[in-house]
Structures are given as structure tokens and as C-alpha cells.
Specification:
CATH class of one domain: Mainly Beta
Number of helices: 11
Structural class: alpha+beta
Helix content: 10-25%
Radius of gyration: 29 Å
């Protein structure tokens, strides 16, 4: 029985090999005629794209205070001489950091990560051919962790990588990551797209990332994630790691978001993205059951802004948006990304589910409006808020500050050093809610309430969603 089974196995293997032999003989061009036909290599792609990936070296001065002598760490010594004897002068030290960047235009426009150049006093860019250039910052966008730099290369055209369409990516696509990990020099790693539209990463305000298993390590930040056609799929930004090294889970900002940050950077235009003008929540299983959906799908609108394009497009609370320009949306972060990467001044199509019907809505993409006008003003006088620069919150200012578009009131924009507001530890981003029982809605209200001296000041401040009450003698 065993012998007959083995015989059958060998018989079918022989038939298969014979079949393959016949096929190989009859198929045209199956016999390799050159070495290139039997080699699978990324070398041509790397050779074409790697000159556009650069190393970025930054330097910044940091003020550091420290004990002038290790003796002051001894409590017995401090008991006799006091802590005041140890008021060492601030010492300045220099911090150096390393990252990567990608040239995206022949005139030397570079995309990198915001965290690579944050706070830098000098930025030096080194090309793959070892030429070095100073770079200046054209745009910093902390919300997406992107920054745009400009090299002064004269009239010389530099190698560059074209931006691809990140919406064309599919899970399983081959990609290459190019950067300078650990400062060892330009390095190429390969992998696949492991996931798309990752929105629960918590890296930036716009959480919408490409996930890849191509090895990304410290120093790769700001480098290129390339498609097989040589176009830029995204900018490598972060890794998930318990050890500090690559564990096969890396994240990149999609090229479509990169494109919106680049737009207008060279001309100095302010970065302003399109907005929906509505609050949205992910459709959970409970919501799906309540509205009669077969499965959780899309995002449900809970509030419509009176100055937003959603209202003008006819959207209502309770509407469920399932797709933007044919791209499905599964949560509020995905919806924000799809709207924010749209071209302002054009129309995008939303697929909307309203009880009883499924239809499409044309949404005109526009900037958040500055209503009310910000009326930025520095407060002066004998009161606790003296030295604070305040402004009226509007959708435009909220977007600029990375806040909810629906936020209202008077927000602190800046605090003058050594001012009363500084000593009382008010912060940029605080919202003044009340002064002596008077509700503060506009800067004019606050100016009126702080126009003269008071025996006592009772303030209510909103900070990080919490209300704080302060009572201060005049």
C-alpha cells in the first residue's frame, strides 16, 4: 500500500515536470538570454531616487542650569551655606541632531519632519555626493510633523523625487525606505505596505498614516518611502518600538498630506486647510443598530457649524458620511484627513446616508473663516491678566492653534515675560471664561472688565477642558 502510494506520487511529479518542460519549450522568450533577465534588483530604482534623499544636521543652543559644585548636592553643606549660594549662572551647551529629508523640486525644496528641525539655530544639508548646503525653513507644521526647507543651489537643478498619489497605494505593495539611520550613512531597506489609514497612532494632530514593515530606525525620520515607480509614497515619521530599533512597524505621512503642506510654502502663503464645519463621531456597533445599519460604517455628524460649508451643502446632524471622493472613511480622523487634503476652491463629493436614502453631496472646500475677527490685544493695567496677549477665537484661529473649530471665547495667545500674568502662571491656550462674575465672550468684554483697579479679582479660566477658578487680591 505504501509502495503504491509512493509510486503515484512519483508518477504525478513526472507528469508535472513533463508538462512544465513542454510549456517551457513552446512558450516564447522563456529561456533567459541575459543576466538582467534572471536578476531581481531594486538597484535601478535606488540609483535614480537616492540622490534626492539628503542628510539633515541641525544645531541649537540650549540654556542649562546646574550646580556649580557637586558639594551642593550634600544637604549638610547646604545647611550652612544655603541654596542661594548655589545660584550658578546658566551654561550654554550645543545640541546636535540628525535626520533625513527628500528633495521634491529641482530648485532645492526639501520635505522633512518638523521634529527633525524643531528649535534649530542652524541647518546643514548634505547631499548623497557629499556636497553641503545651508538650508532655511520655509514652513513648519507641527500638526502633521512636516517641515519645508529651501536650499540655495544657485541655478543648478538638483535631483528630486516626484510626489505620488498615496490614495493609489494598496496593502501588499512593495516600498523602499531611504534615510540615514543612526548616522551610519544613506541606507535602503525594503518591505511592503502593511496597512493604510492608520488613525490611532497618536503621533500628530492629523492621525492618518501609512504603515510599513520596511526597517525604519532613528535617523530615518524625514526620509523617503518610495513606490516601485520611483514616486514618493510618504515621509517616514515614526516607529513603534520597545527597544528603540526597528520592529517592523513604521509609519509615514502620506504624500497627499505632504502636497498640501508644500502648497504655497515657497511664496510664503499661510498654511490653511479646508474644513468640513461639522463635528463627527465614528459609527459604533451601537449607533449602527440604532440607525438600522447592517454593520458599523462611516462617521455620523453630531453638530453643524453655522459658518461652515457642511451647512451650505445641506448636511444635517445625524447624517452619516461613508466616503469622500470615492475613498471610504471609517472614523473622524480619516474624515478630517480627506477634507484637509482637498484643494481649497474646488468641490469634493461626499457619499451620505440619511435614514431611508443614500445620496451624494457636493461640498465646496474652503478655509475656516475668521468670524469673529481676532482683535489681538495685549492687556495692560493693574490686574492679574496684565501682560497677556488675547484674541477672539474663530474657526480660523482655532485651526491655526490646533484646537476644535467649535471653540469660542477669548484665548490667551502669548504671555510677556515677568508680567503679572507670567507670575501667576497663565499659559498660552488658556481661555478666559469669567471676570468678576461677568461672562467673557469677546476681547472687548475683557478689556472693559479690566479697565480699572478692583479690590479683588475673581477669574474663571478654561484649560485643557477643565475650568479653574482664581481669587486674587487687587
Amino acid at each position: 500500500m505504501i509502495r503504491s502510494s509512493k509510486f503515484l506520487v512519483f508518477f504525478w511529479i513526472a507528469v508535472l515536470l513533463s508538462s512544465l518542460s513542454i510549456t517551457a519549450g513552446t512558450a516564447q522568450g522563456t529561456v533567459p538570454e541575459a543576466r538582467e533577465q534572471v536578476m531581481l534588483s531594486f538597484a535601478p530604482l535606488v540609483k535614480s531616487a537616492s540622490p534626492a534623499v539628503v542628510n539633515i544636521f541641525t544645531r541649537k543652543a540650549v540654556q542649562q542650569r546646574g550646580p556649580s559644585s557637586p558639594l551642593f548636592n550634600d544637604p549638610f553643606f547646604r545647611r550652612f551655606f544655603g541654596d542661594s549660594f548655589n545660584r550658578a549662572q546658566p551654561r550654554e551647551r550645543t545640541e546636535n541632531s540628525l535626520g533625513s529629508g527628500v528633495i521634491v523640486r529641482p530648485d532645492g525644496l526639501i520635505v522633512t519632519n518638523f521634529h527633525v528641525i524643531e528649535g534649530a539655530d542652524t541647518i546643514r544639508v548634505v547631499l548623497s555626493d557629499r556636497r553641503e548646503f545651508d538650508a532655511r525653513i520655509l514652513r513648519e507644521d507641527q500638526q502633521t510633523d512636516l517641515a519645508i526647507l529651501q536650499l540655495d543651489s544657485g541655478n543648478e537643478e538638483l535631483p528630486y523625487v516626484e510626489l505620488g498619489d498615496s490614495d493609489e497605494l494598496e496593502v501588499g505593495d512593495l516600498v523602499l525606505a531611504i534615510g540615514n539611520p543612526f548616522g551610519v550613512g544613506q541606507t535602503v531597506t525594503s518591505g511592503i505596505i502593511s496597512g493604510l489609514a492608520r488613525t490611532k497612532v497618536g503621533i500628530t494632530d492629523f492621525n492618518f498614516f501609512i504603515q510599513t514593515d520596511a526597517a525604519i530606525n532613528p535617523g530615518n525620520s524625514g526620509g523617503a518611502l518610495l513606490r516601485m515607480d520611483g514616486s514618493l509614497a510618504g515621509i517616514n515619521t515614526a516607529i513603534f518600538s520597545r527597544s528603540g530599533g526597528s520592529q517592523g512597524i513604521g509609519f509615514a505621512v502620506p504624500s497627499n498630506m505632504v502636497r498640501t503642506v508644500i502648497a504655497g510654502a515657497a511664496s510664503g502663503d499661510a498654511l490653511r486647510r479646508a474644513w468640513l464645519g461639522a463635528k463627527a463621531n465614528t459609527v459604533s456597533a451601537e449607533i449602527a443598530n440604532a440607525v438600522g445599519l447592517e454593520r458599523p460604517d462611516g462617521v455620523i455628524l453630531s453638530d453643524i457649524h453655522p459658518y461652515g460649508p457642511a451647512l451650505r451643502a445641506g448636511l444635517k446632524s445625524g447624517d452619516i458620511i461613508t466616503a469622500v471622493e470615492g475613498q471610504p472613511v471609517f472614523d473622524e480622523e480619516g474624515l478630517r484627513f480627506r477634507i484637509a487634503t482637498g484643494l481649497v476652491g474646488t468641490t469634493t463629493t461626499l457619499k451620505v446616508l440619511r435614514p431611508g436614502k443614500l445620496f451624494e453631496v457636493n461640498l465646496f472646500l474652503e478655509h475656516p473663516p475668521e468670524i469673529p475677527a481676532r482683535e489681538e490685544h495685549q492687556l495692560r493695567g493693574p490686574h492679574p491678566l496684565a501682560g497677556a496677549t488675547v484674541a477672539n477665537l474663530s474657526p480660523a484661529l482655532a485651526a491655526e492653534m490646533g484646537r476644535d473649530h467649535f471653540d469660542k471665547g477669548v484665548v490667551v495667545r502669548d504671555i510677556a515675560s515677568r508680567s503679572p500674568a507670567h507670575r501667576l502662571e497663565f499659559r498660552s491656550g488658556d481661555v478666559v471664561v469669567e471676570v468678576n462674575g461677568r461672562l467673557i465672550e469677546f476681547v472687548s468684554d475683557l478689556r472693559n472688565e479690566t479697565a480699572g483697579p478692583r479690590p479683588r479679582w475673581n477669574l474663571k479660566i478654561r484649560r485643557a477642558g477643565r475650568i479653574f477658578s482664581l481669587s486674587i487680591s487687587g
